[in-house]
């Protein structure tokens, strides 16, 4: 698909640019559907995409609090607190009073939370491996052209996101 994208870019026709836009829109729509699927830790435990991202984030540091979660994910503190409380109830996150403040909680992964983080990391590595296999035969020029198109699209999405602030 990217080889086709590269050939289209080289022609620089208006129709080709519209084709790129429409194809990427379809890809994004499909990715959103995939990304909305729950992640199965076991037959009985499934995590929402937000819960998966929170576990990834919490696994990066042992000094995370609810405010950090809210800021990182652009949530309200209330939404971040609700997310954390769901993970605490599932015994994936520890919520302890922070040593420097009675009003703040330090968040860490439990042993089960760390196991979940490792499963998520393995899934992410598998996805990366699949992607790298898919583009294995791309030349440096094709890879660069694709990266340029994706960079331009990311700037467009960033600009659109700023409209909602």
Keywords:
165 residues, mainly alpha, Arc Repressor Mutant, subunit A, two-stranded antiparallel ribbon, 67% helix, 8% strand, elongated
Short recap of the structure:
With 165 residues, the chain is mainly α. It is 67% helix and 8% strand.
CATH class of the domain at 44-138: Mainly Alpha
Query: What is the residue-averaged pLDDT?
Result: 88
* End-to-end separation: 34 Å
Number of strands: 4
Strand percentage lies at 5-15%
Q: By CATH's scheme, which homologous superfamily of the domain at 44-138 applies?
A: Winged helix-like DNA-binding domain superfamily/Winged helix DNA-binding domain
Query: Might you state the CATH topology name of the domain at 44-138?
Result: Arc Repressor Mutant, subunit A
Order of helices and strands: HHEEHHHEEHH
Helix content: 55-70%
Strand order of the largest sheet: 1-2
The largest β sheet comes out as: 2 strands, antiparallel
Computed Rg: 20 Å
Task: Describe the global form.
Answer: elongated
CATH architecture of the domain at 44-138: Orthogonal Bundle
With helices defined by DSSP (H or I, 4 residues minimum), what is the helix count?
Answer: 7
Give me the secondary-structure category: mainly alpha
Low-confidence region ranges: none
Protein name: HTH marR-type domain-containing protein
Domain HTH marR-type: 1-155
Keywords: DNA-binding, Transcription, Transcription regulation
Pfam families: MarR_2
